[in-house]
């Protein structure tokens, strides 16, 4: 009773009261999200934007101000202000064992700068880019080999049994999982092989122990992604006392322990491999190796300058790997499924894209894709950006201000939480011409884009460090796929099957028919 009275006292005396759905104690606006929109965060934000306009407030475990206009973002992304914190401190981070670790939810500025610097140096380097292109070719060949076995070589029986239909979204999640694990840790995972094996009949050539391991890793990752938000957005009382939330929280902690153990083994093994490699031999370019050798004598830029230039501990490396793996799996996969969907619904765009792809490869369906090809595939890149603009996969992302500031015409106290409604920003008609039109050509006009109006990868200091890698994966895969295959949606009339949680929108299923292009 006291809690409820206190909650509503604070609510009715809050600074700058704004319109928004009425909150409930302990659960904030979750009842509305679940009762009205079946848990769909994007639909909830669409509703709030239409009903309340450019600025409204919502509640999870605390109050957040949601901004929907491009000009409201200036204070967050300019170098002058540097509001760098994403979420306020919360007990959940400690329970998950990630307080002050990694980068995504790290609220310790010094530690975040240290980790972010390591990660950026590792994955924005030219050698890492080469490695990403190389792995794209290798893993795409593997993906094709499974499709060939499943779909293309056994035509008659498969067509009879309707097996030429594949769930593209599911294949992509396994593909991006194998890709990110290889690029970040240097280790192979066999998520695609495991998925292939579920179809019965022929099995993949990889040893079954390795495949089973990958299945466990993939399942643990899935549980972590689902369960993570319970630790940020749900109050400790619900998480610890209500069985529904407690079960998810326990499962998430179990997956976290499992993941940490796996990563610890990989890190120790790599440290030993590096130690056993003579100085004149080169080392691989995965993120793990780069993080281990940074600020050691194996680092080509090594200078000894005290604490700031210290090397990384295993627990820091683990947290960074986990951040990268979680962020690098589902987002890239979902956006590519949306790309396939939009291409199928826009024949003119498809025609132009095929012309670009055919021009680049000149009829050669076998040669690997190169870095130059990637830079020349400007229309494919435009398609990715336009799909991400009209159909963002992160419906909102957050900042918490570390000093009092005037934002959107109101003065806000330190510690206020904000969210940016990505879809509203991407459709702000003061900044986008015909915002509702799907038009990749707009991206071909140089410098047309206004500052902060496109926030697919966020903005400011905390902008996504994986953006280049994501674009390489997306653009190269589009080119490799459409160079060889005709991909048609099974049901062109149905809307895309996607679900949106508290932050991410993911494609659940995309049934396509795939056959070789003439
Ligand atoms: C299409 C794919 C991707 C999209 C749309 C995406 C989008 C985003 C967004 C919107 C943010 C928040 C930025 C902000 O708060 O300003 C973010 C952060 C982040 N992303 Fe990505 N991302 C993608 C792929 C990746 C990949 C492949 C990686 C792998 C390394 C990655 C790693 C991260 C990390 C570590 C952060 C946290 C950065 C920080 O807090 O300093 N992302 N991403």
UniProtKB/TrEMBL annotation:
PANTHER family linked to this entry: THROMBOXANE-A SYNTHASE (PTHR24301:SF2)
Residues reported to bind heme: 464
Record family assignment: Belongs to the cytochrome P450 family.
GO molecular function annotation: heme binding; iron ion binding; monooxygenase activity; oxidoreductase activity, acting on paired donors, with incorporation or reduction of molecular oxygen
InterPro entries on file: Cyt_P450, Cyt_P450_CS, Cyt_P450_E_grp-I, Cyt_P450_sf
Lineage: Eukaryota, Fungi, Fungi incertae sedis, Mucoromycota, Glomeromycotina
Keywords: Heme, Iron, Metal-binding, Monooxygenase, Oxidoreductase
Domain of life, source organism: Eukaryota
Cofactor: heme
Protein name: Cytochrome P450
Transmembrane segments: none
């Amino acid at each position: 009773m006291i809690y409820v009275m206190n909650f509503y006292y604070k609510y009715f005396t809050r600074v700058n009261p704004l319109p928004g759905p009425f909150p409930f104690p302990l659960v904030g606006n979750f009842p509305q999200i679940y009762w009205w929109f079946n848990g769909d965060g994007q639909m909830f934000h669409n509703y709030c934007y239409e009903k309340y306009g450019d600025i409204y407030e919502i509640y999870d475990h605390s109050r957040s101000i949601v901004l929907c206009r491009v000009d409201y973002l200036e204070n967050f992304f300019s170098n002058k202000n540097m509001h760098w914190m994403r979420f306020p401190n919360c007990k959940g981070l400690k329970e998950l064992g990630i307080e002050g670790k990694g980068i995504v939810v790290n609220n310790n500025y010094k530690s975040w700068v240290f980790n972010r610097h390591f990660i950026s140096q590792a994955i924005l380097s030219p050698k890492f880019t080469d490695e990403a292109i190389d792995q794209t070719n290798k893993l795409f060949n593997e993906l094709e080999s499974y499709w060939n076995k499943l779909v293309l070589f056994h035509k008659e029986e498969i067509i009879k049994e309707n097996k030429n239909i594949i769930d593209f979204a599911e294949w992509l999640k396994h593909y991006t999982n194998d890709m990110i694990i290889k690029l970040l840790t240097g280790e192979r995972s066999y998520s695609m092989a495991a998925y292939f094996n579920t179809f019965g009949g022929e099995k993949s050539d990889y040893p079954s122990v390795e495949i089973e391991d990958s299945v466990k890793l993939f399942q643990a990752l899935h549980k972590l992604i689902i369960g993570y938000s319970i630790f940020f957005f749900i109050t400790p009382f619900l998480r610890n006392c209500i069985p529904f939330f407690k079960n998810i929280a326990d499962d998430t902690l179990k997956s976290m322990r499992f993941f940490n153990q796996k990563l610890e083994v990989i890190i120790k093994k790599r440290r030993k491999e590096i130690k056993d490699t003579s100085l004149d031999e080169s080392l691989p370019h995965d993120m793990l190796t780069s993080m281990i050798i940074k600020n050691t004598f194996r680092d080509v830029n090594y200078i000894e300058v005290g604490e700031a230039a210290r090397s990384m501990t295993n627990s820091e490396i683990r947290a960074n790997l986990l951040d990268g793996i979680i962020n690098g799996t589902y987002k890239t996969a979902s956006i590519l499924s949306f790309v396939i969907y939009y291409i199928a619904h826009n024949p003119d765009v498809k025609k132009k894209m095929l012309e670009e792809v055919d021009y680049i490869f000149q009829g050669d369906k076998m040669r690997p894709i190169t870095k130059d090809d990637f830079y020349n595939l400007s229309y494919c890149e435009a398609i990715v950006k336009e799909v991400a603009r009209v159909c963002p996969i992160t419906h909102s992302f957050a900042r918490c201000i570390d000093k009092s500031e005037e934002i959107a015409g109101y003065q806000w106290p330190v510690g206020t939480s904000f969210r940016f409604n990505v879809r509203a920003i991407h459709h702000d008609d003061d900044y986008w011409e015909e915002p509702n039109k799907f038009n990749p050509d707009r991206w071909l006009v140089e410098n047309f884009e206004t500052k902060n109006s496109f926030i697919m990868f966020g903005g400011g200091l905390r902008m996504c460090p994986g953006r280049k890698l994501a674009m390489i994966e997306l653009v190269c895969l589009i080119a490799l796929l459409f160079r060889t295959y005709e991909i048609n949606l099974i049901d062109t009339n149905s809307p895309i099957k996607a679900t949106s949680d508290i932050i991410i929108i993911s494609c659940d299923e995309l049934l396509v028919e795939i056959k070789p292009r003439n």
